[in-house]
């Protein structure tokens, strides 16, 4: 069993993230950043809890132009927040539909409401996690405040991981790799797919995962048809192609990859699809170097996929960023010209449609180093494994 | 082992939900409802997937004044959506930052952009799950469209559960009740809290849970200090009070309750806090009858809590609704005058602060019937159990 990394981050990591954000804010003319979503609050404060599962209460973190971030949060989170590096913690008794933090936020932002600009996440892959009514009320009460989209700023920061972050993602990947290796002992012909899922979740916890927020997959004769479904009660049958795709976490960081197996025997089309995707991943591994773009990685994989693809199974891209969220910027797609830089953590996720509406997906997780892609996952077998 | 309910719902359930929504829309003068969040999309369509873990793609469901809802979704979800009762499914190749469904939505909503009103969730406990830039662009392209807050309408529908929903929540509660009953065999002095969490997750999966999206708790000498933390590596020690609070799911429906134990021996203050909260729950059970209000339930519990509470541990309310989300409307709080009606599923969650910053929370789940509260959870022991 490999070494288990330290949990959490030293305070210096949060100080560095904040300093980098503040340098970018100065460049972009932002007086502050107002953040409402879990990954961003955790990124700058270290505030880590599953309590975000409850949609009831909004949470706010404000990154000023200088100094530590300020937390404006429900009182129920005060004790946990006091354990982070944040010092200025302002709380209210939430939920309070009439004033869920709006007075506190208004006080905090009022000094900037004389024409200054505050950044907010408004762009791709983001949302505003507070009631829209409250947001409109907040702005109405801060007449002179200008809002700018800070998605690019946050995206640039979060896309490049620290060594400590890479270690956590690598640990999550190692746990899932060990679990996938045990799958032939867990799954068998005749077992309902739902039971395979449940057994695999237990295996991952046993291997050290904290949580399995994401587990999808499919199994069907000669290939699966869908890659985002919950499991059915249909028993695995000889000739099925089985796929499991997991986003399990360790210390709040995700892995995100899948594996494919044939039950009993494999049909020729599925074996060929597997081979094409395995080689497409190889092409992606070779292309994922500093200085390349996401489009380059996409094209490298697509060039191999084109040997077989019938243009079914449009999943929109061939991989993405990975970290505190199951999927993060950037996207391996023709439209994404993001430059690949060292210490990006990425998935390579080639997929293709074949036969009568069947789809196959492969996925690996990598970190980009100076010399190129370094696998964080145990590479899938080069030929479709048979259980 | 009790009977396992059927998964999913008959089409008639979705038709009934839609008909009720449409009756309320007619009452409120709404030409449609535009929904962007997972529970609402699932409520009206049956579209059920963990793929929402990925923040990358927006998903839309439009409930028109008459007829079935219309899905405007990424192509990756088309196959799964075709398995629901929805017929009009419009897809695009997502992600597509330049046009993530906006053209499709604009076409769909254009007929209403001549002064008609479309409902959107803008109120308490809601958020808009799409990039704010895209929302602003959508509205700008539909000059004559008026938006109204439909939170009240959706809240009224979702607060009252069908028998099929109650059965699923009851099943989730039964799974967690059996798992909590096994805790004394799982947890022991000397065991790090993190390992207790992991073993408890495995137990819940073994008892039949699909997933455990929420597990928090605490353990400390003479009482815990925080109720939303992830677990530490600190070993359980004699004199600790241990609390676990879980929101585990079955077929997409949550339970949400906790249990408390003392390790080895219990201090007097914790035993007294436990007794007060157990009796506060009894008062809540007696008060949760059709015709009462959430405020009545709050006051009934608060009256008992007042025997001891030092006003620490402000969690803002003493329970809430429960269903497709860990926490739903309404809130047992002085400000919530929602009338309790039959087939509401609720938590009773009295808490109090005591000693030097310690907090204790109890929680049970109930369904409100004609005659009053019916427990869905196996009632907690009347005295603090010792492991």
UniProtKB/TrEMBL annotation, chains A, B:
InterPro entries (alphabetical): Creatin/AminoP/Spt16_N, Creatinase/aminopeptidase-like, Creatinase_N, Pept_M24, Peptidase_M24B
Domain of life: Bacteria
Creatinase N-terminal domain boundaries: 17-160
Gene3D superfamilies: Creatinase/methionine aminopeptidase superfamily, Creatinase/prolidase N-terminal domain
Residue ranges constituting the Peptidase M24 domain according to the UniProt record: 167-368
Protein's name according to its UniProt entry: Xaa-Pro peptidase family protein
Organism per entry: Ruegeria aquimaris
Phylogenetic placement of the source organism: Bacteria, Pseudomonadati, Pseudomonadota, Alphaproteobacteria, Rhodobacterales
